[in-house]
Amino acid sequence: MAEIAVEATETPAQLPHVKVAILGAGKMGGILLQAFLKQNLFAPAQIHATVAHPERAIALSTQWGVDVSTDNLAAASQADLILLGVKPFQVPELVESIRPALTRHKTLVSFAASVKTRAIEEAAGMDIAVIRAMPNTPSALGAGAAALCRGRFVSEEQMELAHRIFETVGRTVVVDEKHMDAVTGLSASGPAYIYIIIEALAEAGVKVGLPRDTATQLAAQTVFGSAKMVLETGYHPALLKDAVTTPAGCTIDGILELEEGGLRVTLIKAVMRATQRARELAAG
Ligand SMILES: NC(=O)c1ccc[n+]([C@@H]2O[C@H](COP(=O)([O-])OP(=O)(O)OC[C@H]3O[C@@H](n4cnc5c(N)ncnc54)[C@H](OP(=O)(O)O)[C@@H]3O)[C@@H](O)[C@H]2O)c1
């Protein structure tokens, strides 16, 4: 994926007093880190990130202009806010390994799928604030969708801080923890489903004679515009669909094919399957 251009800025960071560690700055962690810099939420000096491989740490440090190492304990020691971005099965071991750096005043924000706040609290071995977040990759462009839920020891202030951080990279909702796997199956996995839909629509455009670039642009902009209509008008999607569907026109013929092909049921099953898988991930 193309990296986000981060330009040096003289403007003070929006949250100048918060020191952040991103432990496991892989695809999602890297997207969040670059988006935080791009939105000027934190200055580069406020962020310490870690990865597993030393050579990657050196390369990413040069690329992002922030301190990247393989030393989770050192990064966590310097931070008030610790983001956990390793694979789900690695989370408990990672948290145990940073125990000496943890205090009750720090906040842990895990964006690993599947891993419960209680498991993280237990791994930390203390009554510490744990927030789960489930972002998605369009956070890279400030167009993410994220859900947050709180553990047992999270203050309003800590929740507000997490909300503020994720709002800078997209739309953020707060849900009960029991819904986090469903969020994973819907909006965290969702971009992959939508890319397939855009790719398929573009193929269709090619089939009916459009140049591929034109077809891809039209398909992507149609998805973007339709999503904007749902979000900004607040109308039910069915009502917006009806407005496109002239009696005996072309769209209803297209819809007939979609229904025969089972698009709705397929999408429902995709989210159900991904949600089910999200429930299993923490176990490895
Ligand atoms: N990708 C998504 O769309 C998405 C969306 C929402 C949530 N998530 C969650 O984000 C987490 C990471 O997923 P990802 O797709 O970003 O995977 P990823 O690209 O493989 O990132 C994992 C990162 O963790 C690092 N790592 C592994 N062991 C480590 C350790 N002991 N200490 C420090 N860093 C370590 C890896 O380092 P190296 O680079 O050196 O191997 C890698 O950079 C998962 O828990 C996933 O559920 C992902």
Features:
single chain, 284 residues, alpha/beta, Rossmann fold, ProC C-terminal domain-like fold, 2 domains, 8-stranded mixed sheet, 12 helices, 8 strands, 13% strand, elongated, binds NADP nicotinamide-adenine-dinucleotide phosphate
Characterization of this structure:
- The protein has 284 residues and is an alpha/beta fold.
- The protein has 2 domains: 20-179, NAD(P)-binding Rossmann-like Domain (Rossmann fold); 190-283, ProC C-terminal domain-like fold (Orthogonal Bundle).
- It is 50% helix and 13% strand.
- It has 12 helices and 8 strands.
- The protein has helices spanning 27-38, 54-64, 72-77, 91-97, 117-124, 156-167, 180-188, 190-207, 212-233, 237-244, 250-261, 263-280; strands at residues 20-23, 47-50, 67-69, 81-84, 107-110, 129-134, 144-150, 170-174.
- It has an 8-stranded mixed β-sheet with strand order 3-2-1-4-5-6-7-8, with helices on both faces.
- Helix 4 links the parallel strand 4 (81-84) and strand 5.
- The longest helix is centred in the C-terminal third of the chain and has 22 residues, at 212-233.
- It is elongated, with a radius of gyration of 21 Å.
- NADP nicotinamide-adenine-dinucleotide phosphate binds at residues 23-29, 50-53, 56, 72, 85-88, 90, 94, 111-113, 134-137, 188.
